[in-house]
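Crash report, auto-generated. Payload:
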Amino acid sequence: MEVGSLLSTRVAKVLRLFAVTTVAAVLAAACSTTNNPSSSGSSGGDKKIALLLPETKTTRYEAQDKPLFEAKVKAVCPDCQILYSNADQKGDVQQNQADAALTNGAKVLVLDPVDSASAAAIAAKAKAKGVPVIAYDRLILNADIDYYISFDNMQVGKLQAQALVDELKSKGKSGSIVMINGAPTDNNAKLFKQGAHSVIDSSGFKIGKEYDTPDWSPDKAQTEMEQAITALGKTGFVGVYAANDGTGGGAIAALKGQGITPLPPVTGQDAELAAVQRVLSGEQFMTVYKAIKPQAEAAAQWAVDLASGKKSDADAMATTKVNNGTKDVLSIILTPIAVTKANAKETVGKMISDGFLKAADICSGAVGTVCTELGIS
Ligand code: BGC
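Recovered output after restart:
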């Protein structure tokens, strides 16, 4: 055998081995993510808490919600186990994950539903087994659930739209806004949209085109923005309302792809690292900071209290009630913060002092000079 082909056979073998081990590792990770409670870093006791998150394209779930929830559970309940799953935007997958959690003996479900309406079926199954349900971030509609924790989502939509309208007016603009809303299956998306309309509809700006974005998909948002540009023309709109940073990023990609300069103001939400950098570099007009820590930690405390039979302690943590069509659900509603380049010293500074993002990550590369100018460190 020639050296070259011997080498390539060896290389091929090594590569095959690498591929096999990588696939095995990925599969193991996937299994441990969905099924193996020990992956949560808990010590493996008998109080099982299921955490069911909806998707992975928005960075908050894996980067913030999951680790913060796990850390809090670990701190207050060393003998609790977390059964974690992420449904990757698929409602049927989430149904199966919830079934699996119930079969595996979950004592509490902390559920951020892919579909706020069809998740009622999950809640009903849990109820039938005497397992309490906490609606996490997105409300579960028309179901007998126990608690709900979220942000003031109507207010999120108002903050986004008000910032956009104020910016456009301050620049003397008039005309149309393109609206790129979130997933129609998400109750929050409806609230963001309602909040945004309550501002835009009476602002004097017209709505040139409006879309609901299935799955909150950034790619679909990009296509929607491309369609809006085709329909309205490159100069046929003055601003873009995008419901979160993922959809905002998709819209910005479409605007850049069409060579539109300067970019019109585009909104967002979540204060994802990439979006905060876009806000600082001037590509994205605003985002909304929702501090996930208090949300994840309160949900974790609720779950631990319920798993430990301390329902009255859990009840006492609620600060308000929200009606979900079936009942007034004991709730905690947190306050969102609008973030623009103009208030970044304070708001991005808060993200850094909260431990939400690191200055070194935000201020890396070209954004570094902006951080220096604004005194962000
Ligand atoms: C959350 C947002 C998130 C969106 C997409 C909403 O329910 O409140 O923070 O960007 O879902 O996952």
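Post-recovery validation: The chain has 14 helices and twelve strands.
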